[in-house]
Structure prediction request, 464 residues.
Amino acid sequence: MSQLASFVVVANRLPVDRVTASDGSVDWRTSPGGLVTALEPVMRQRGGAWIGWHGAADEQVAPFEHDGYSVVPVPLSAAEYEEYYEGFSNATLWPLYHDTVAFPEFHREWWDAYVTVNRRFAEAAAEAADEGATVWVQDYQLQLVPQMLRELRPDLRVGFFLHIPFPPIELFLQLPWRTEILEGLLGADLVGFQVPGGAANFLRLVRRQTGLKVERDRVQVTDSHASVSRAYPISIDTQGFADLANTPEVIAESEALLEELGHPKRIFLGVDRLDYTKGLRQRIRAMGELFEEGKLNPAEDVFLQVATPSRERVEEYKRLRDDIDLLVGRINSEVGGIGRPAIVYRHAGFPRQTMAAMYRIADVMVVTPLRDGMNLVAKEYVACHPNTGGALVLSEFAGAALELKQAYLVNPYDLNGMKAVLMQAATDPLKARERRMRALKKQVKANTIDHWADAFLGDLAGLD
Ligand code: ADP
Ligand code: G6P
Prediction:
């Protein structure tokens, strides 16, 4: 890095992944997940440096410029990929923080790798940041970085934002390294959560685990350092998505898609990373039963589900993939016409343009996570759907449900309840659907990613 940055984002993922094809050629691809979707427009607007991993193990990549900001790759060895990324981040913290919907595994060598890699990220940030710079650390993979960074560079202003839920204290306390994580986070001047409940869980934990003085949302960590915890619900570049969905290319692609699907009367759509927190098993079972019971007619209705491959070597994800393949196969073998499946399922990531085309044609968007920090897919649908006739079915357990209150809310554990709401969303009179969708569009227009970044960074700059 030749030039020091006054604004630095540190995240496990960079906005782009380096992919090597089988012929040895190298390409860069948009990284998966909501964190990148949300942060990428923030960096494009503000400039600065984005420090992160480029998605491939055992590779050193030099910093480069991208869309008006610097990208600083941090390397991971194959062993670190396994222990820090697949292990501690995604087989310990991910399930623990998502209500233990899968069992978290605790392994001491995974923790050691987590500490080592966090230190590497902290050092990279310390090296890239100018005197007095603002450094914004992101998500559960890097919870030790705030404190490490404070030790290395006490002159910096350090923010931290957790994109996933912060769990109830009863679950968090299972973690053998709970004190270290807590101390790591408290190194930040401002710790942001998706919803007020996350901030409340965190502050309750601080009160119970540390002898520190807590006044409302402010923890006095040392004589000279205090840490504030608040909620900042994340969002999307609403106008950017709406504009994209209205381009002639996307309109043409949505028409081609309709043609390919055989012009169904109603399209139900699911869009997720293939993750067990997303409630895919429950959703597919509910949709399958509606087809089997004749409430949905495969000659007229279709359920289109696309799922981006994710964390494919982690055991729970392998199991999920097999389960979904089996479920979809079983349902399609029992209902639907030849050449006209009830469920159209693709295990693949698609370009942003194709996603917008899908959102355009979906009559009922089905978002049913068992637990989700926010869920940006729900907001993307609201932004992209071209009229107010669409319907959003949304799990109560997504952070987004606190804002998108006019969605058709469901408890994904209650299959009959979910089936009833799916049918209601599909059959409500147009006027009722429009009333809801108008309110949703207003919400998503008023609370964009700019509001989120301005609120967090404004608060961070204003702390004394
Ligand atoms: P998470 O961050 O847990 O994956 P979010 O719903 O917050 O969940 O964000 C997911 C992001 O990934 C969204 O921007 C969405 O458009 C994108 N995405 C999800 N599934 C696909 C897919 N099959 N192809 C391309 N992009 C996808
Ligand atoms: C969620 C997490 C992000 C993560 C993304 C994709 O959005 O909050 O931190 O980057 O999922 O997951 P992956 O493991 O592929 O980075």
Q: What stands out?
A: The chain has a mean pLDDT of 97. Residues 33-34, 37, 271-273, 306-308, 349-350, 355, 374-377, 380 surround adenosine-5'-diphosphate (ligand 1) (CB under 6 Å).
